[in-house]
Amino acid sequence: MPIYEYHCPSCGKDFELFVRGETRLACPGCDGRKIERRMSVTARPTGGTGSPVDLSNLGPPKGGGGGCGGGGCGCH
User: Fold this and answer.
1) Beta-carbon count within 10 A of 29 CB
2) Pick from 33, 37, 45, 41: nearest CA to 15
């Protein structure tokens, strides 16, 4: 579930909230109901030493076989 950032055009306040469903929101600065939702930028994970994690090996496995896409499940 995403975490959104919000902006209130009435008072100019920016804030973040974790909201589920159809919750009605109000600005914490002015109680205004007309707020703009913005998608938050995620942080890049680190390897514990502060250096970025190598994400180049993520994704589907290389080569054939295995998994439903390669026929390994026996349904094809």
Assistant:
1) 13
2) 37
